[in-house]
Specification:
alpha+beta, Alpha-Beta Plaits, 8-stranded antiparallel beta barrel, globular, disordered C terminus
Length: 204
Amino acid sequence: MHAMQYEFTLPADYDMQIIRHRVATNGHATDHFPGLGLKAYCVRVRGEQGSTVHQYAPFYLWVDPDGMRQFLLGEGFRRLSGSFGRPAVRRYIGLQYLPGQAAAPQPVAASRRTARIPADAELHGVLDRHLAQASARAACSQVYATAVAFDPQAWEIVHFTLWTQGVPNDDDVQYRVLHVSHPGIDQLAMAPHPPTVLHGQVDP
C-alpha cells in the first residue's frame, strides 16, 4: 500500500462552490480507477474547523503503485494541474489500513495527524505504538476507516482517518469530505503489515 496527498491552497475570496461542483461532476472518474484503493476528496474551508485557508487536498491509498504512476501521468491530473498549477505530491509508504466501526455508507469528514520520528528513537517501537493508536481509533463508532503511513525522507508518520461525523480532536488537520472513491478498498483491508513492523527486523 502507498499513500499520497497534494494540496492546492486557494485565495481567501475563492468560491469553494467551484470545487464542490467540480467534485460532484468529475469525482466519479476515479470510482473504478485501476490500482486505486481509496481516494477521499477533501477540502478545508477558511474560518471553519480551525482552518485559516481554503484548500483542496485529496488523499489517496494505492494498492498498486503502477496505478499511482498512471494517475499522475494521466489526462485527469494534467487537467487539474492546468487549472490550479502542478502541486508537490507527498508520497508515503503505507503501514496499515483498518476499516472502522461506523455503519454509515459514506464519511463526511477526515483528519490528518502528522508526527515526527525522533532521530534517536527506536524505529520499530515507534511504528508499533502508532499502529496500536490506529487500532484503537478504528474501534471508535464514528470512524469509517483509518490508515497509517510514513515518509522515510522527512521521517514522519501520518495518520489519516475518515469520519461519519465531525472530527473530535482539535489538534488534527480537519477536512470536509465531498466524495470517496474506493474501488480497491477490500484489497487495502487484506494487505499485510510490513515485516519490519511485524517482527522488528527485515526478513532475510
